[in-house]
């Protein structure tokens, strides 16, 4: 709907259409000064607009009235805003008029912030492929306003020409008025205090608490915690200044060096802008992601205002349980759009392969960005950051109830099921009367993204749910602190990379050159010692040894799947349940440790022990935890799994036969008659096995993975009449073309078997080469260390 301009004499009055938008700009209209006092924006001409009425003595409790005078436009604006604060509404400038003679402003209109109605510039629906989040409606067409005009160009005094007092909405009470936009202002004294406390490493919440005490209440502070955060962020930007150019120069120089042609870096916006976000990943970081990129941590520890350096690294966990770097970001702008850009850029640097899981700080903006860029990745909030935040948000509760924090940790970490956690949580908050606590309600709503019992079905490469892993500690611990500048960080970054590399080489050396002490006679322990790295084997060994204290009781059996109750002796109330498919050698436990960490738990290992599974099935040995985690990546996946398939098929056949034999043993000892029948059957089976072993080359084709291939070129038969085998027979009725086809099929089968044997031999040679390369790398590093000493 459009409005035509209204003409009154020599003055043109246009309706304020910008008042329909959220962020209104001033509309300025030129008018003749001679007509100024003869025309008013009011529909009725007021006597106070035509004649001079001397203002009454100043009174801070006054409300505006027509004819009121001010020394300047700014004085009028300040008075109306002060009046609005007392009454309980927010103001803004709606419209201005300029003189046609010299362009000077001669009229201002100040309105209630709820004046007008919003006009959506964009059509509802999708914006850039995503649904635009609806904003809260703030405009309700309020008519309250104050219009001032300059009295004459010589005196410079301003006169109230129109005042509308009534509002069409509820006014804000005095204890909430500090939340209104026009009344939020960080004063000079507040800025000085914020700067001092920020320099001491105190965060926004702590600073606001200090300001509230200093000013005697939140309403006296004059601004919100969000304003405090914005001021601290702008202060950090001023502190960094042009130092970001140092980082850009460093990255350009490294990329130009021939040894680092694959260094990746990107700048949000123009590279010449000092206040842009920057992301970079060196070649080693990108290579590490190909080995260990299944789970990622976006570490925002240094983004807090305690540190002068707002950067955030992407990290992971290597095969020794050590942190590895997947890239770094310098964060100047922390908007949702900036985090979306950052995650997209990082994913591009990592060849577009998203991780299985990602762990970040408990942050709304980061969550929105992860949801948009990594929709298939399981997003977890760092539990330890939430516990740290708890100490700040619940400080009054912790001071009154010292046991609350320990009970909260127990509720989160020690509950074994979702039902148990829900019950424990409700009991805890009711006991301390915290059901209405806003922060606790927030983290409860987000519980599926940080409470372990909801996350155990996803891989996070953590060995313990209750203890904090060393890998969660920041990659740059010991190299960045509260006094580290960006200029110093560029130097410390190189030192951190070198130190982490030396620790990885040392762990490789210990794994290759030191044999762990075995604590059981189990073949499985010996197998694990040869497969896993030293640190991971120690964790597996701990689980294996614990099986000696557990009992497994069969509680259900359905076809090929058996369910066991596993518990320590006399502790059936703390039992775990393991389902086991013996033929497929697959087991799952209610504790879900394998899904969460990639290592088998003591409960599944207990079931393996009682069912005589002597070696680890290959599908329970994750390559990322083995000493060969960084070898053979270029090989075809089928070839790389060849040897494991052969070993697994042998293990499966062994375990299946043992299981079947044990069934006859269990049944055969019940009576003497049954025992004789079982013994005769076993002797007959032994004779057949011996005969089959003697003629194994003629009875069947066995491929390299241990599977029997009974093809159509003949049939395997045993002639029991004469006590000897008839061998491989050909049908008498087969014509000549069919015989040639069968002959070619046999030749093809032999060629295929030879090919798979060659593949296995090639894989073995390549594995030896990788081991030799690793040993040489360790020796070179030792020589370097010796030269330093």
Automatic annotation (TrEMBL):
Q: Which organism is it from?
A: Fagus sylvatica (Beechnut)
| InterPro entries in UniProt | FAR1_DNA_bnd_dom, FHY3/FAR1, MULE_transposase_dom, Znf_PMZ, Znf_SWIM
Name assigned to this protein: Protein FAR1-RELATED SEQUENCE
Q: Describe the family membership recorded for this protein in Swiss-Prot or TrEMBL.
A: Belongs to the FHY3/FAR1 family.
Q: GO CC terms on record?
A: nucleus
Q: Keyword Flavoprotein: yes or no?
A: no
List the Gene Ontology MF annotations in alphabetical order: zinc ion binding
Q: Where is the SWIM-type domain?
A: 576-612
Location(s) in or outside the cell: Nucleus
PANTHER family, per database record: PROTEIN FAR1-RELATED SEQUENCE, PROTEIN FAR1-RELATED SEQUENCE 10-RELATED
Instruction: Name the lineage.
Output: Eukaryota, Viridiplantae, Streptophyta, Embryophyta, Tracheophyta
Quote the function comment for this protein: Putative transcription activator involved in regulating light control of development.
**In which broad location class does this protein mainly occur, judging by the first location in its UniProt entry?**
nucleus
Which keywords are on file for this protein? Coiled coil, Metal-binding, Nucleus, Zinc, Zinc-finger
Which Gene Ontology BP terms does the record give? regulation of DNA-templated transcription
A Pfam family the protein falls into:
SWIM
Q: Which SMART domains match?
A: ZnF_PMZ (SM00575)
Coiled-coil spans are 734-761
């Amino acid at each position: 709907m459009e409005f035509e301009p209204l003409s009154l004499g020599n003055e043109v009055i246009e309706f304020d259409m910008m008042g329909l938008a959220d962020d209104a700009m001033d509309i300025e209209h030129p008018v003749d000064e001679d007509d100024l006092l003869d025309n008013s924006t009011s529909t009725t001409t007021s006597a106070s607009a035509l004649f001079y009425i001397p203002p009454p003595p100043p009174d801070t409790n006054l409300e505006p009235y027509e004819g009121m005078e001010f020394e300047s436009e700014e004085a009028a604006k300040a008075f109306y805003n002060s009046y609005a604060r007392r009454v309980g509404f927010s103001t803004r400038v709606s419209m201005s008029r300029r003189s046609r003679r010299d362009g000077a402003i001669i009229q201002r209109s100040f309105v209630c912030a709820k004046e007008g109605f919003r006009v959506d510039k964009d059509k509802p629906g999708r914006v850039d492929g995503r649904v635009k989040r609806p904003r809260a409606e703030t405009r309700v067409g309020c008519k309250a306003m104050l219009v001032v005009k300059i009295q004459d160009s010589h005196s410079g005094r301003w006169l109230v020409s129109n005042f509308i007092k009534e509002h069409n909405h509820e006014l804000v009470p005095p204890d909430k008025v500090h939340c209104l936009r026009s009344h939020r202002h960080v004063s000079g004294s507040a800025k000085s205090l914020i700067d001092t406390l920020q320099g001491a490493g105190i965060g926004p919440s702590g600073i606001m608490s200090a300001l509230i005490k200093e000013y005697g209440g939140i309403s006296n502070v004059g601004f919100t915690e969000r304003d405090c955060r914005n001021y601290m962020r702008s202060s950090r930007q001023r502190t960094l200044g042009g130092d970001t150019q140092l980082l850009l120069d460093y990255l350009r120089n490294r990329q130009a060096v021939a040894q680092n042609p694959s260094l990746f870096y990107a700048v949000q916006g123009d590279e010449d802008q000092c206040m842009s976000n920057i992301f970079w990943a060196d070649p080693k970081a990108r290579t590490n992601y190909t080995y260990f990129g299944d789970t990622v941590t976006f570490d925002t520890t240094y983004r807090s205002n305690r540190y002068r350096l707002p950067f955030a690294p992407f990290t992971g966990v290597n095969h020794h349980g050590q942190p590895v770097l997947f890239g770094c970001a310098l964060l100047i702008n922390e908007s949702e759009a900036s985090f979306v850009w950052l995650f997209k850029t990082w994913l591009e640097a990592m060849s577009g392969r998203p991780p299985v899981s990602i762990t970040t700080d408990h942050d709304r903006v980061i969550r929105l960005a992860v949801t948009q860029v990594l929709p298939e990745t399981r997003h977890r909030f760092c539990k330890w950051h939430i516990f740290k935040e708890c100490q700040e948000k619940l400080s009054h509760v912790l001071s009154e109830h010292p046991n609350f924090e320990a009970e909260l940790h127990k509720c989160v970490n020690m509950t074994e099921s979702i039902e148990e956690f829900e019950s424990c949580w409700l009991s805890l908050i009711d006991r301390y009367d915290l059901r209405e606590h806003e922060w606790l309600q927030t983290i409860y709503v987000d519980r599926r993204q940080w409470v372990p019992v909801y996350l155990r079905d996803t891989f996070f490469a953590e060995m313990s749910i209750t203890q904090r892993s060393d890998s969660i500690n920041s990659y740059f611990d010991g190299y960045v602190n509260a006094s580290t500048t960006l200029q110093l960080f560029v130097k410390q970054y190189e030192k951190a990379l070198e130190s982490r590399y030396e620790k990885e080489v040392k762990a490789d050396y210990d794994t290759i050159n030191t044999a762990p002490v075995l604590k059981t006679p189990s073949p499985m322990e010996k197998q694990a010692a040869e497969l896993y790295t030293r640190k991971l084997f120690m964790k597996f060994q701990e689980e294996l040894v614990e099986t000696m204290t557990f009992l497994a009781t069969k509680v259900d059996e359905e076809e090929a799947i058996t369910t066991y109750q596993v518990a320590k002796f006399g502790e059936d109330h703390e039992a775990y349940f393991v389902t086991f498919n013996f033929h497929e050698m697959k087991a799952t436990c209610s504790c879900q440790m394998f899904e969460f960490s990639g290592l088998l738990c003591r409960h599944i290992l207990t079931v393996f022990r009682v069912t005589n599974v002597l070696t680890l099935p290959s599908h329970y040995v994750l390559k990322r935890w083995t000493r060969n985690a960084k070898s053979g990546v270029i090989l075809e996946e089928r070839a790389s799994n060849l040897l494991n398939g052969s070993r697994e098929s042998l293990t499966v056949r062994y375990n299946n036969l043992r299981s079947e034999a044990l069934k006859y043993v269990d049944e055969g000892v019940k009576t003497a008659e049954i025992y004789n029948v079982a013994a005769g059957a076993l002797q007959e089976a032994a004779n057949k096995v011996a005969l089959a072993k003697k003629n194994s080359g003629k009875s069947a084709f066995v491929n390299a993975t241990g599977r029997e291939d009974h093809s159509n070129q003949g049939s395997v038969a045993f002639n029991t009449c004469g006590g000897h085998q008839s061998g491989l027979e050909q049908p008498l009725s087969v014509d000549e073309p069919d015989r040639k086809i069968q002959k070619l099929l046999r030749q093809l089968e032999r060629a295929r078997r030879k090919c798979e044997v060659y593949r296995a031999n090639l894989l073995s040679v390549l594995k030896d080469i990788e081991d030799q390369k690793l040993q040489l790398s360790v020796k070179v590093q030792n020589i370097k260390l010796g030269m330093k000493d």
